[in-house]
Design goal:
The structure is a homodimer of 342-residue chains.
Chain A (H helix, E strand, L loop, with lengths): L8 H18 L4 H11 L17 H12 L8 H22 L3 E2 L2 E2 L1 H5 L1 H20 L3 H29 L6 H26 L3 H28 L2 H4 L5 H4 L5 H8 L2 H12 L9 H13 L2 H18 L8 H16 L3
Chain lengths: 342, 342
């Protein structure tokens, strides 16, 4: 996280290809759900007028296209996979924002605050169903295998969110439980994204290796996300300052700090056990808590673990005999994930 | 609706087979979502203790098993289809109850009132994803074709609910628009249920014919449902008396009454345009409105249209050369749907 990394030009080009296909797919939804989805993706304002907000990093579509190239087929073979994983990702964002009561994402009001809970629920549902439609339209056994991967992945994602919700009402959460939750919420879909293109190309062996790569990458991603949720710059993250602490979220750095024992861990545990203040502006207090997490070793552990997972991700590529440019691009993605600041 | 009909014994036996398979499938969900789903299906109370509440008519699983028999394969071939359509149906119920603010279903508190909105959203998501998993586990092209049908159907269901939500904020809704909405919300899934067994058996032609049967049956079903929503006995429907009028729902009998012109239609339109009373106990007023719908012809039209759709459903079976017992059972289902009182 000391220096930010940028993505290679080929991947940025892939992102544009995937976004056009995604937009065409979302355009198939009924009028009501289309409006909510277009707003959520940043393609329109709440009245449906064109807008040009950032629609995110598109890491998952980029991986899906790379995945096809890894199996030595044109990246377009991975396109239905790219569209599907991004739809599942955004289904989860729309529903999670509502469940978590988050009012802002990517510097904009979240869908449920603009259209109300009912329409946000429904638009999320529509995106999940559309994701399956898109893959099942790919003829032959490859489309079915990719759809099977997507359905299993969606279930893991939902399980991860269920665990996350359950953590809120629990006083103690272990690092292992938190890692299991993060595997479901983040790793499963990044692994699916990394594997789906190869799956659509019919390369089972490459798909398995890339799934492993994506799994480790997902944990690195979540660790960085959790670090940014405490120490990130709101101007870059699009989230309120110290947002995860404000929500008393049992994130990975926090659970690692709690597990360290020692006086800082005890003070942190004591603070987490107290009811949240309603006063929204206790920034000084939150900064003190962030310092406790750091003193208890939560920050350095998360950094080191993110780095370790990033290395495991690239090691999973060994022996797959990938084209050199694809291998380089996959490593660039791993660097981008661990060094991103937004 | 003058006399209630019961289902043939073979179908009741099929319902038990399907329920056991459904329960096994739902048992695969993570602990948190499993509890919400088990409660929703009436298999457990809110604490997870076994319960024996009615889990509904199971019309869709029954149709899915019949559909396999129609294609002259054992009904168990249709079992993954039976489980999947019932999962999609219940995904929609759990989400719709929350979106519509309904607090009671089948004489019990709805899932969102017991577990909160977040967990109800997530359990619905889990059921939708599980429905696709179950069908995609069926090997070969038949599983994929059935999953494609299910994904397309889910999207139609979601579209129907989106239209239903949009009707709430509109002052005028035509009978055609209301029929299109009902086709999405009800016909699409009954058609899928009727076709999915034959699809799993690989009988495309039978699947197409049964899809047509299910589509008409679905409209008959919705018309009867709408009649029960106004004139049904709460002891049998499990919903509050005059519930649809209480919610000022633009149901099929109401839109037909509005379209008839005449003084009763005008009075009805005037009432619908007034803001809803907050006083919950204006039953006399609601009875007067129900009488207006009847005077304007909404009730008799809905009865006649349900009957006509039921006949169209059974006519769709002509030329399919179905086994005699299957044909008789499908006709019994059509009678059951139009004559049911709960």
């Amino acid at each position: 996280m000391t220096t930010s990394a940028t993505l290679p030009a080929a991947l940025v080009q892939g992102r544009e290809v995937a976004e056009a296909a995604l937009r065409a797919a979302v355009g198939r939804l009924d009028e009501g759900n289309r409006l909510v989805a277009f707003y959520h993706f940043g393609w329109s304002d709440a009245q449906g007028r064109p807008a040009a907000a950032s629609s995110g990093k598109a890491l998952r579509p980029i991986l899906a296209l790379l995945s096809a190239r890894a199996a030595r087929v044109p990246q377009d073979v991975g396109l239905p996979g790219a569209v599907s994983v991004e739809l599942v990702h955004n289904f989860a964002l729309v529903h999670d924002d509502l469940m978590d009561g988050d009012r802002e994402r990517r510097h904009r009001a979240t869908a449920w605050t603009v259209f109300g809970p009912a329409r946000a629920i429904l638009a999320g549902d529509a995106m999940l169903a559309l994701a399956h439609q898109v893959l099942l339209e790919v003829p032959g056994p490859m489309g079915a295998a990719a759809a099977r991967l997507l359905a299993d992945t969606s279930q893991l994602l939902i399980r991860g969110q269920a665990e996350d919700l359950s953590f809120e009402s629990r006083s103690e959460v272990s690092v292992d439980e938190c890692l299991a939750m993060a595997s479901g919420k983040t790793s499963a879909l990044l692994a699916c994204a990394a594997a789906v293109g190869a799956q659509l190309a019919g390369s089972e062996q490459i798909a398995v290796g890339l799934h492993q790569y994506g799994w480790h990458l997902g944990l690195a991603f979540q660790l960085v996300d959790d670090l940014l949720g405490i120490w990130g710059d709101p101007a870059e993250t699009g989230k309120p300052v110290l947002s995860d602490l404000r929500k008393r979220k049992k994130s990975l750095p926090v659970t690692a700090a709690l597990a360290s024992g020692g006086p800082a861990a005890e003070e942190l545990a004591e603070w987490l056990g107290r009811p949240a203040r309603t006063d929204p502006d206790d920034e000084a207090e939150l900064r003190r808590i962030a310092a406790l997490v750091e003193t208890a070793g939560g920050r350095s552990w998360a950094h080191a673990e993110a780095e370790r997972r990033s290395i495991l991700a690239t090691e999973a590529l060994d022996g797959l005999n990938l084209p050199a440019d694809v291998s380089a691009d996959l490593q660039a993605v791993a660097r981008f994930v661990t060094r991103r600041r937004d």
